[in-house]
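Revision sheet: structure tokens.
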Amino acid sequence: ELVVQVHYSMPSVDLRGQSDQTTLRLRTATTVEREAFFAVPDKFIESMYSLPPDTLPAGRESVDYDWEMRVEELSFSAYQEGYPQKYRLWGVLPHMHQYGRSMSLTIDPAKGKKACLAEVKTWDFNWQRAYFYEEPIELEAGDLLKVRCTYDTTDADDDVAPGWGTGNEMCLVGM
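Predicted:
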């Protein structure tokens, strides 16, 4: 079973009703050397399920939203007995919306020194992409991942709520 999620941005009424031109090429294998998974944690979005959810105050030039999580929280499989406690991070996909200005992902490992895993100094909503490392980054259970998203809400009339619409915000790091 395969689910493909496609996001559309339809700022122009002229685009409505046009056919989707998305194509997908897949290669399958009966076995793999190592299981992979794609995690998309976002504590700001998760706050939507709390009352009240987190918000970004309107009218501020710089608003930081920080969150953190342990590496083993990235995958439900990590809680299964016998699942490996070491991971390879192949790349990241930073994601915010139109109030976003910068984002960073750092690691505070259980052993060793802190390191920057990703830094987007000047966020541009129209330039969303995944970034892949030349060599994967080794992560272990117990390592702490820290995310900081910075926003400019000077143009917002009301506090900015988390959400999937571009008038809302996210602080997501696909890994």
